[in-house]
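WARN no homologs supplied; continuing
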Amino acid sequence: MDALDRVAGPALDLLARVDDQLARHGAAAEDPVWPLLRQVRALPGDAVAAFRAVRPAPLAAAGAAIRPHLDGYAEAADALAGQVDWSGAAAQAYDAVRAALATRLTDSSAGPVSPASLAGNLAATAGYAEALADWVSSSRSALAVVLADALRSTEATTLVTAGVPGVASGLPGVRETADAAAALAVPVLTVLLEIAEQGEELLAQWRPRLALAGAAGVAPAPGAVGMRLDGVTRLRY
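OK structure emitted
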């Protein structure tokens, strides 16, 4: 359980009141909540509930589960490094296929793990999953801080006491209650937009590497005309 889980119960109850007020009474025409609602396309309570379901642990576990398989690609590439003790056209064709397959596995010529190799594909996938986990974790913490501030605000008191029978005179009116709901919605929607923007930036940072990792195959080595690396090796003499 993290900070967001700890504040989620009372915060979602408060945001349900916010959603209800916004749906029934709206806000002043010039209120800053309107552009935020148009961007998020959801009421604050619904948006927070949706993001609360996103958790970092499965993403971090996926990255951790992938990385051990990188050793298998390195071992396979090493196994292909040995020289054959035969010669001729068949030996040359075999060497061409072997070199191309080793390149497809790890491509050590481009560094320890080339992004365009199968090992690079795995490494990029693991790295992206781990980066996403970090983004989710930090985003949940940032959202928890905003929700905690909302819970102890005067606007929260206004919403909770609105229309409660038996409370002393001076209860907030409809407009005051609606304004309090809009005021609470603004920081919540703002942080949700910031979280979404950070997620887009993260994807933009990783997209080139992920696209390179997903590139299909490598160019056939000289003398390996007709070779395919889609699961079937074909040699044409």
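The longest helix spans residues 174-213.
OK
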